[in-house]
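Following up on my earlier thread - several people asked me to post the actual chain instead of describing it. Fair enough. Here it is, all 220 residues.
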Amino acid sequence: MAFKDFISGIHNATKRNYIQRVVEHDKAECATVSKRFDKDYFDGDRKYGYGGYKYDGRWVAFAEKLIAHYGLKPGDKVLDIGCGKGFLVHDFRKVLPGLEAYGIDVSTYAIENAMPEAKPFVQVGDAVKLDFPDKEFDLVIAINTIHNLRIYDLYKALREIERVGKKNKFIVMDSYRNEQEKVNLMYWQITCECFFTPQEWEFIFEQTGYTGDYDCVCFS
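Reply from S.P.:
Thanks for posting it. Predicted structure:
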């Protein structure tokens, strides 16, 4: 298990006004709508989520990093848990032809509206109970996904990730290192059920037997 900084370039590319997020709208109402993970979350008003989740190629460099770091090759299998509309699944296959990348997402809306190139390779699924055999994938990833689970389901999901991965796993979760980042995270997030310090995340990994790598998104 090791910390790997693969996500900061994407995360830091977005500017955020934390105070505006909580004073312009009813944050509780926004969170309630967002947690349905339907059209409002993906393609509705920005206050509910992405404000329009469209492919822009930002995940290509991320896919390249993971392919290089984990030494993936044609014929290897990758699972993206929380794949949304399949953008990263598409980019894995684009960057390395022959790589078998697949995705699951709890959102029926996201899967039904997946980008055409990725649609054959994504399906509705739940991180808590992965419908795949043991050791099926050469790399299992979950990017900004498992922190949307309550703690009892979070534990199940980490054990499932460990079960279906042969060796390599990489997950990204929201986190905080000080009180300012904690407040910023609470102001900004609309779907999180679990957010912890990096040290607390490592404790949870030990409790669940998760042996893969991880990265933390912190809201500075």
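The chain has one domain: 8-215. That should answer part of your original question.
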